[in-house]
């Protein structure tokens, strides 16, 4: 060896190669050869500090912030269900928007079903005045009555 003090040995236990231009890992601070400088190649224990990836929504192509310890798939799914601005997500979310106004009924309909007497919005089951205890007025319930 002509230059024993020049360079440094790779910190990877299986390599220990003498490298004249060693690279320092920015996460753990150890010196590595070019073959082991990547986080995955030397099993870096501090990689989570630097190797942060931001998932992108497949529908609207917006980056979605993920906090440490959260599963990216769950965060992206929540984004698609609630905040996504893409057309397919909004159409899926806004189909059944007309909620029945009868107390205790949680049914939603695609179209408004408005009572002629009280002008309330009801589901198909409660659309008739007798079914939703209509308080719309003293008009007869049918033309025959």
Descriptors:
two-stranded antiparallel sheet, alpha+beta, single chain, 145 residues, rod-shaped
General description of the model:
This protein is 15% helix and 8% strand. The chain has a two-stranded antiparallel ribbon. A two-stranded antiparallel ribbon has the order 3-4. A two-stranded antiparallel sheet has the order 5-6.
Strand content: 5-15%
* Helix run count: 3
Shape: rod-shaped
Structural class: alpha+beta
Please trace the helix and strand order, writing H or E for each element: EEEEHHHEE
- Overall mean confidence score, pLDDT: 82
What is the rounded Rg?
33 Å
Number of strands: 6
Percent in helix: 10-25%
- Strand line-up in the sheet with most strands: 1-2
Described by strand count, sense and barrel closure, the largest sheet is: 2 strands, antiparallel
The end-to-end span amounts to: 113 Å
Spans of at least 5 consecutive residues whose pLDDT stays below 50 are none
